[in-house]
Amino acid sequence: MPVIELRGIKRIYRMEGKQNESSVVVRALRGVDFAAGAGEFVSVMGPSGSGKSTLMNILGCLDKPSEGTYTLDGIETSKSDADTFAYIRNRKIGFVFQSFNLLARTTALENVELPLFYRSREKGEKRSAQSRKERAVIALREVGLEKRMDHFPSQLSGGQQQRVAIARATVNDPAFILADEPTGNLDTGMTLEIMGLFQELNRRGKTIIMVTHEPELAAYTKRIITLRDGELVSDKPLTQSRNALDDLARWKRNHALLAGEAQPAGLLCAAEKYAAEEGAL
Fold this sequence. Notes:
six-stranded mixed sheet
């Protein structure tokens, strides 16, 4: 059974016109059919106005379709109430945003604990504060930030902040990770680090849907779907994805000033080891 299945998804917005003017109808999505199974890494592409953001909001249960059905991990979401939507967002989806969305006055560890804290408040959920902390520590360790757990976002680089956001997204073991332009605020080196991290998470079985307008990033995924004018016009698997850590190593070789930089730990180091064993580096 697919993790994600959309059938006939339409999203229509009605914008009220000025006095004596009729309302304007915007058809953001025009009957999208899309499914993704466990362990897929899919990029969603399209020009401005193609419907990418609308589709992301529906996938993330931040909005409901005007027509059609959206089934996520066996739950049909289209008719769900607000409480069910909140449950789905907390349990089933791990969000990673371009702007990181970390709480400024909260440490990296506390930011990662937040989804577990909200989950602990649900009826029938029993999890101690110590248990939440232990899970958050593991998640940060896996993204190579075990030495930055007590740091505030302002004390972290952009790449480190995004790794905190990824740890927060994975701490609840969601059905899939939804990433919206996750490297939009990062330089080339940090972008390659984050894409290497996503690739390693995917190798470990995580399903990832990434919204991007950059073909260079889509080349690191396994499948590219393209939207245009609210319709899905292309759905192509990639027979051979680029290896982000291979490209990162090449980029570092071409930037001698970065040669002495410490290598990232956790999942990223594991990914580099994997790539080396496969002869990619």
